[in-house]
Amino acid sequence: MASDRQTDVAVLGALSVESMSGYALRQAIRDVLGHFWSESFGQIYPTLAELRAAGLVEVTQADADPKSKFAITERGLEHLRARLSEPPQSARPRNGTLLRLFFGRRLGLDGCRDLLEQARSQAVEQLAGFDVIRQEIRSEEPSDDHPYFLLTVSAGEHAARATEAWAEESLLVLDRIENQS
Amino acid sequence: MASDRQTDVAVLGALSVESMSGYALRQAIRDVLGHFWSESFGQIYPTLAELRAAGLVEVTQADADPKSKFAITERGLEHLRARLSEPPQSARPRNGTLLRLFFGRRLGLDGCRDLLEQARSQAVEQLAGFDVIRQEIRSEEPSDDHPYFLLTVSAGEHAARATEAWAEESLLVLDRIENQS
DNA sequence: TGACTCATGTAAGGCGTTACATGATTTT
DNA sequence: AAAATCATGTAACGCCTTACATGAGTCA
Predict the structure, then answer these.
(1) Of chain A residues 10-69, which have a CB less than 8 A from chain B?
(2) pTM
(3) One-character DSSP codes across B10-35
């Protein structure tokens, strides 16, 4: 029974881009992968220890830098490539907003409106956030990783714009429901 | 500390639309809410027992129907309204496809293409599924619940169309990456 | 010196999935 | 009569979050 856990993929992937401390790692996972991935902080250190014991990650210390960091090993890169090639597993859907709207008759029109307004403004905020991320990527020195980063940003933008359009349409639908009842 | 669990909302909500057996309930949650919600079957019966003990749900037996069903009580409806009014909680994001694409440099162009093709065809399948659902809703006798059901169908359609467009654009981006390297 | 961030963990407990178990009813 | 579906559960195990604990370095 293959385990569901993919913490190793997120950790090894992040370290394949850049060596860093466990603390920086958890910030990177939250801030950089946060749009489409989440890891519990309580999982990161244990996973790091496991990966180190398995020789997929090592602790390095550069001369110039007094701080030690975690770096991916050659075997770690192989493991990462193998894991990335496995069929993607996504979390089962759990959209609290849609669950509430589905039973919107019980919630009432005003409650539904609140949900939709909130969904819309969240989408707009997300879009602004993606703009910032695009600028940050552009301001860094070019890297072979960047085109792939941008694919995920684009996915977020498409999804956010779809949410925005849906919420606006749906608010109009609610007005129609109200007027005809 | 408010619990994350929202199984009660899904169960009470479904029973607010129609009384049914636990077995039918789990099928309804899978087939009807499946686009945006999932419940573990192992949770449904225990939750049903709890709700029954709390007087939010009762076992009914119609004269015409030899089978007993679970029905929501008046107190259950109150509880449902209260729960629906709470701020929506959604699962933390866990998109295995985007996780892999983000580290696409390690996965390789062909692997990325596979992921995008798969995402695209899944989105197309979903759109076909939504068409079927719309027809089913239309074929039922009109209900005050239907407009709300349709809001969630529309959300799924917007999301699926966004995924389709993103995947197609992204496949072209991959071609460009290949040609310029 | 006190507050804040960096840094590395551990432990408890809740949540959820899967697999297992059992029996009745219906269909082929 | 066999197979499929309906129907109701339980138990084990793994995942994940939250809260707690500790200490070093840095900055005002």
Answers:
(1) 10, 13, 16-17, 33-38
(2) 0.95
(3) HHHHHHHH--B-HHHHHHHHHHTSTT
